[in-house]
Amino acid sequence: MSELSLHPAAQDLLFREARTANTFTDEPVTDEQIQAVYDLVKYAPTAYNQSPLRVVLVRSAEARGRLVDLMAEGNRPKTAAAPLVAILAADNEFHEELPSLLPHFPQAKDLFFADRGVREESALLNAALQAAYFILGVRAAGLAAGPMTGLDFPGVRKEFLDDDHTPLMVVNIGRPGPDAWYPRSPRLAYDEVVTTV
What's the CA gap between 80 and 148, in Å, rounded? Predict the structure, then answer.
């Protein structure tokens, strides 16, 4: 008997068979699909329920061209060809939403997050956690994700965000195309990662 409650097919979809996609078909990714992804991944845990992840969907040809120019050279063809591209960013002003996101402790906004440096550090960690859930949500929708950090971060911030948002990564999204997967790289063994004290 498995120690996991999740059905083996779902384990494969989300983890074992899931890979970073490098090519995509031209099948569109709809707003409804991304809404369904968000409605699932919005439950990712974050400190004080701060939920700092913000997503910019790059759909227009003009915006796609600007983004492609900001990607590392090896990532440009993938970003140019993906049906949908998402810029994932951390909102450094997330604390403004805390009174509604944490109604039982609204004073957390000023008690813990009045300092911009503290907010930026917290937003970066918690938005990265949400970004991981976002990738799992894309997989749960039967789509493939191609997350990338090979990009001009200051350029992406200037072109698509503002000084209150820190870009984390770009994620290409769609149905996997021909030769979408690189060979699976090794992983560390359990006893190389887990220590009991």
Answer: 13
| Tokens (6 digits) for 46 | 């974050």
Give me Rg for the CA atoms of the chain: 18
pLDDT at 16 over 60: yes
DSSP 41-110: HTT---GGG---EEEEEE-SHHHHHHHHHHB-GGGHHHHHHSSEEEEEEEETTGGGGHHHHSTT-TTHHH
Q: How far apart are CA 59 and CA 56, in angstroms?
A: 9
Convert the pLDDT of each residue in 33-86 to its tens digit: 999 999 999 999 999 999 999 999 999 999 999 999 999 999 999 999 999 999
DSSP 178: T
User: Helix, strand, or coil here: 196?
Assistant: coil
